[in-house]
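Below is how a single chain appears once it has passed through the pipeline. First comes the sequence as given, then the structure the pipeline wrote out for it. We keep one example in the README because the format questions we get most often are answered faster by looking than by reading.
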Amino acid sequence: MKPIILIKIGGSLITDKNKAFTVNKKALDKICSEIKKARKIGGKQLIIGHGAGSFAHFTAKKYQRKSGYCKHNDFFGMADIQNSAARLNRIIIEKLLEQKVPAISINPSTSYISENDQLKHLDTSSLIGALRHNLLPVLYGDVIFDVKKGYTIFSTEKVLGFLAEELIKKDYKVEMMIHCGQTNGVYDEKGKTIEKINTANFDEVKKAISGSSGIDVTGGMIHKVEESLELAKKGIKVLIIDGVEHGTLSQAIRGKKVLGTEIGE
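Resulting structure:
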């Protein structure tokens, strides 16, 4: 089995998070080109996850369902949020197919189940089948069923993080997660890239980390770093880079040093 690299594409990178249902076509073209280039690198398998950007975040805000339904047992909101997330996913799939990348959608809403926001069940059979046939699985931040709350939102970081744990249990080698965003990593108070973040210095650098611009119901950069620290504890290297800077993603997959923030224990 080839080592797996998880690639998270930030919703703020490929959409205008201040304008509902708006795609940043230039950024989407560039990141899809980088993914195509990265797939040609031998000895690796890729799994993509993307954020909801100005699609599901606006819909989730309307229903105020960050922590699942709490008043009316109204599952129409779940359906509406899921539809918004899936709309962006189809746009990304179509762009990858245009570039002759055999991308296939894996929907968290039909494969993940949680209990009080913690993973209870994950069906990886379709995803593993895609990997076996050299397809590119594309997941996304989504709304999922929760046996206690009814439904809840799983950010892309949680979707990929729990997936990494399940794949490791099945003896797959998850080598690295790369976050592709709008910045060259995490910035300090002076706007310079913090080269490394770990559990020892997180409290110190946390004050310099700002939340996402635009509407974001999943926690922004702080959430991204916290989830990355949890992955690092499991031995998975995490790298946060600029997603559209030419060649950065493919260079990182090759193991070359790139400008960004490395997150470890």
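The two ends are 26 Å apart (CA to CA).

See the next section for the split statistics.
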